[in-house]
Design a protein that fits this description.
The chain is of the alpha/beta class. The protein has eleven helices and eight strands.
Length: 351
């Protein structure tokens, strides 16, 4: 059993997007098919979603809600949004078809996984919805902690008098924990059991604790948004998924009208024409920095066309022949992309 926190995943993606950022560069977007964490058996082509995390009504749960600040129905809504986030991702993958069944049942409560669905239940769901597997959210819990800090600010009025303002800052940490299982009907095997933890922190300032707390985002909305995100992340775990990545390219060079002209063409999606100019710069410009920038841009143009091997050649040339340091970073990214592409092919059964 494993646990994931999505902050690391999003941070990694963001760093890739900002890797080449500088004042003489512009940004473009690429759609990349990201591999899943593991290969799901090929006979699974349609999956049905189930929510088994509905909270049970009990005195203990009521007391917990009073302590943690959970509202009535908050976890129920969060579990529903998590399955919707999962379904959204699985509708964007070429690997599966997804059926959002709307089936809900009460869970066991707490942090432990409940007893699995019986295989008779799994079979009944699969037959009813034409599925080969069931993906179920098995447990769900949300918690809030709020801390307060006080401070003062000073300013002068029009007459030069000093005015002191006292304020309170409220910091709320929202955490959502959930557990998933993936049931393979044919082999009658649970092929994944996975814990997800997702959190978000909000700050707000007011004249008092109550005022500051009232300025924080609505708890229901926060839990729904975090839950939806966590559901999307689990979808990315079990299926190759299209994601957006960001790449930057050079827009200018020293005394090089050609690099500027090619950049303008690239910005209006005329990459073939831009590439022809960049190739000419590589071959004829005596300034190695300009040639290195052009070679780097050609690597990006090749990646956009799906020619990863050619993109790698250009990135290596930018670094080895012309000393472009960003070319070395791009080599690492392209090697990773080629490895991921091999994994995607295996997961899609294209090997």
């Amino acid at each position: 059993m494993k646990t994931i926190n999505s902050h690391a995943s999003f941070l990694f993606t963001t760093l890739l997007g900002l890797l080449f950022l500088s004042s003489c560069m512009s940004t473009t977007q690429l759609q990349v098919l990201q591999p899943a964490a593991f290969k799901v058996p090929e006979h699974i082509e349609t999956v049905a979603t189930v929510n088994r995390s509905l909270p049970k009504k009990s005195f203990t749960n009521a007391i917990e809600g009073m302590i943690t600040g959970e509202g009535i129905g908050m976890d129920r809504s969060g579990g529903k949004r998590a399955t919707e986030g999962l379904s959204n991702v699985l509708t964007r993958t070429p690997r599966f078809k997804v059926v959002h069944t709307g089936i809900e049942e009460k869970g066991s409560g707490g942090y432990r996984f409940p007893e699995p669905l019986s295989w008779e239940q799994v079979e009944q769901i699969c037959v009813q919805y034409g599925a080969d597997a069931v993906v179920a959210i098995e447990k769900f819990d949300s918690d809030f902690t709020t801390d307060f800090n006080s401070g003062t600010t000073t300013r002068k009025d029009d007459a030069g008098n000093e005015i002191v303002r006292r304020y309170t800052q409220a910091t709320r940490n929202t955490e959502v924990r959930m557990g998933w299982r993936l049931y393979d009907l044919k082999n009658r095997r649970i092929i994944d059991e996975f814990d997800v933890m997702e959190g978000v922190v909000h700050d707000a300032e007011g004249d008092s604790q109550g005022d500051a707390e009232n300025r924080l985002p609505d708890k229901y909305r926060t839990v729904d948004e975090v839950s939806y995100m966590a559901g999307e992340l689990y979808g990315m775990r079990i299926a190759p998924t299209w994601i957006t990545v960001y790449r930057n390219f050079y827009t200018k060079g020293k005394k090089s009208d050609a690099l500027a002209e090619a950049a303008r063409l690239a910005k209006i999606d005329r990459w073939d024409e831009a590439s022809a100019i960049w190739k000419n710069v590589v071959e004829t410009d005596p300034n190695p920095k300009n040639a290195g920038k052009a070679a780097f841009n050609l690597a990006l143009a090749s990646e956009r066309m799906g020619h990863l091997g050619l993109a790698l050649d250009w990135a290596e040339k930018a670094y080895q022949d012309f000393g472009n340091k960003k070319g070395l970073d791009y080599v690492s990214i392209l090697n990773r992309r080629m490895y991921d592409e091999q994994r995607v092919d295996e997961q899609l059964g294209d090997d």
